[in-house]
Amino acid sequence: MHAVTIRRSRLSQFIASIYINALYEMKNYPVVLINTMMSPVSFLILIVFVSRGRLIGEAIEGGLIMSMFSAGTSLLTDLSHLKNDFKLQDMVVSSPTSWQIYVSGMAFSEIVYSLPALVLLGILAFYFIHLSIEGLLTVIAVLIIMFITSIAIGYTFATFSSDIVQSFAFSRLISTLFSTLPPVYYPIYYIPLPFRYLAYISPTTYAAELAQGAAGFITLSVDGAIAAWAIMIIVASALFLIAWYKGRWREI
What is the total count of domains within the chain? Predict the structure, then answer.
């Protein structure tokens, strides 16, 4: 009976995080739904116009990757806002709620918040990208790993941020380094050498290559695919461990 009570308590805490960070804003401020769609869709439209439609498939996959990555990094500003402006983290710390439950709920709320963009991009993907079952599973796995990676980044920076202005600066920097500069919306061979090698610093480059390979837009060797998976998993694991051990859940 006690175990059932604990599970119900954790579920209610999880749902509360979703309501606070997503459903409340979506219900009371519908304009935020437009905001979540602007960045991925605007880049998609730009790439499609510039390429005259040739890169629409790559651009759609790039939009999905950017949406999932941006959803995770949005934790940075949202957690920082709730921590510094409303002192919510102090209340959660003093309650039975663990940081894992709190952050999990907040992370899931970012997915809910990003649903308009994800649904639109999913519909476009259905019409313009023809994936096999294996290819679809590959793309889904890539998106999940990117989301986990961005959650770790967002949470770690949020626990150290002392002001929402600082958080916005971090968020823009992370978005530029991981979503804008790397070849997420187009194949990497569009970047001339030797600058192409710099793109491989970002894990989103490997995510885009795997997604584009799964859709048949580029040819990725077996060794290249294995290396891309390994790098993404290692980076995600390392960032998650940093978030686990170095994130400042309690003020020292």
Answer: 1
